[in-house]
Amino acid sequence: MHQLPIFLNLTGRTVVVIGKGEAADAKARLVVRAGGRIVPAWEEGASLAFVALDDDGEARAAAANLRACGLLVNVVDRPDLGDFTMPAIVDRAPVTIAIGTGGASAGLAKAVRQRIEALLPSGLGALASALHAAREAMKARWPAAPDRRRAIDAALAQGGALDPLRDDTADAVEAWLAAPDVAVLASRLEIIRLTSPDSDDLTLRAARLLGEADHVFHAASVPEAILNRARADAVRHVAEAPPTDPPPGLALWVKAERNGG
Fold this sequence. Notes:
A four-stranded parallel β-sheet has the order 2-1-3-4, with helices on both faces. It is of the alpha/beta class. Helices cover 33% and strands 20% of the residues.
């Protein structure tokens, strides 16, 4: 990961946008949609800044001045001059998906965004809002967090009661909670065998499992580059063998063949 993806709450915050034309207007629209207030120059309390100037020298100077005021700066079409880049955005508020390439190719980010746009239903945001509204009811039904997480994971899985790729699932949350028998993901252990220390050599299956696993069991020799492909909140366990009694959810044993693990 070359950049840290974050989602900023700009509601009521001041954002500097320097420049005129289509690029500056596009950034201004995004800021307004996110609830920010736009100013054309630095002022006290500003949070971050966008520079959309055609002249390279002017853009460089403007970015330096704003950075000296303590702002993080985005310089349109010149990622090497700025502190952050803007992703291509799929907006299903409150669900937001950002696709970034670190400034390497805006065209590639756009192409990926278009694929995802076609995949995700318009009702995805409504499902997120319905799940948020049902938080207390879910806690009441499944007081233990692991049980609650497994029930939600089962519901949101492909073909599940709340499959997010269906457009009608927001209306199904109440019925799902009221159902007498709710599917819960059982404990499951999967094994992936590494043939290389390079994360780029992972099979599609291995990469998918790493991204889904709740627990990752691995020998100390497994490279960090491989482990970094797992979910950030997955629990890691250094072990010499896979667990005989896997914890709830999806557990993964990462087997390094080259070490005989």
